[in-house]
Automatic annotation (TrEMBL):
The keyword Ubl conjugation does not apply. PANTHER family: KETOREDUCTASE (KR) DOMAIN-CONTAINING PROTEIN-RELATED, YALI0E05731P. It comes from Zopfia rhizophila CBS 207.26. GO terms for molecular function: oxidoreductase activity. This is NAD(P)-binding protein. Transmembrane segments: none annotated. The keyword Iron does not apply. Pfam families: adh_short (PF00106).
Amino acid sequence: MVSLTTIRTHNASLKTLSPGLVAVFVGGTSGIGLSTAREFVRNTNSPHIYLIGRNQTEASRIIDELHELNPSSQLSFIKSDISLLKSVDEVCKEIKEKESKVNLLFLTAGYLTFKGRDETTEGLDRKFSLHYYARMRFIQGLSPLLAAAANDSNPSANLSRAVSVLDPHLGTRWTPNFEDLSLKRTFSLKNCATHGSVMNNLALEEMAKAHPGTSFVHAYPSGVATGLMRAQGPVLNGVWKAASLLMKPFLVPIGESGERHLFAATAPRFAPKSKAEGVQDLEKGSDGVKGSGSYWLNWDGEVLGESKKMVDTRTDDAGKKIWEHTEEVFRKICEEGGRY
Ligand SMILES: NC(=O)c1ccc[n+]([C@@H]2O[C@H](COP(=O)([O-])OP(=O)(O)OC[C@H]3O[C@@H](n4cnc5c(N)ncnc54)[C@H](OP(=O)(O)O)[C@@H]3O)[C@@H](O)[C@H]2O)c1
């Protein structure tokens, strides 16, 4: 376990970085995204923060709170339902018009549901879209800005990282159905969880190969009491809140979760491939190679090791197949304006 002392010492050191780091929190209006944004604002100089979500009232309250925490910060809210990939493109366009670089893309938008497949007008399951397709579309759309951050000649300003918070474990235990990656025909809650996990795992590895100046992290938060069940209505949300109280000793406190995720989002040990050489405490990447630029993290900051199941899944170019499928989905929906 990476100790909280190590994490706090590192996070406090971010004050020595150049002012004006740009961070985009997709899902920054609640839970782990908000808690990490709060730590980013607390620990950096004059950051530019973008919060993406749907809740304008909550966003306005958060912007006031974060501005009070660090009056040098510039805070913006972009209201958008990003379960639609076309909305993701609009958000990316707006950020590109305002910024020339992005140092951190932090992806947490999602929710917990016991409902079955719920198709968006673009033909994807809503939750699956939030947990995978929309996240990858953000990475693709903002990759020129992440590359611009990576290419900054000032080492105090060249942080370039994308973090997806979901669950890398499931992908190391279960194999996806390559015949139906979008789960059009074989949707179940278990399949959706498995595909979300393994597709984040392997697509981020592909991203690390394609963008060696940026590092990619898939992080498991463990249990954290957040608004995750809000979409389920007042009854189930109430049950979740009561259960969270009972389970409190076993949950990661929300403030600690933010501190730990800020570490995952900024610590040099999770270096991009092109900048790994000479880094102290450099971690093993998800492919087992030190400093390969893609890292799967447990809640405590430790990297996950390889599993037998994952070795099997990797055979036959699994990562390439997943990325080709993802590009096909993007082409049909975003370029041809159709449904998948
Ligand atoms: N909390 C846990 O114990 C836990 C455990 C394992 C994995 N996770 C995963 O971690 C991630 C973050 O969870 P959390 O606990 O921080 O959840 P949360 O408190 O419910 O926050 C989710 C965020 O996603 C945004 N969001 C949801 N649907 C959206 C949409 N259609 N368009 C735009 N934004 C949307 C919400 O913003 P608006 O309400 O403003 O739209 C909110 O900011 C999720 O993917 C979750 O599955 C959580």
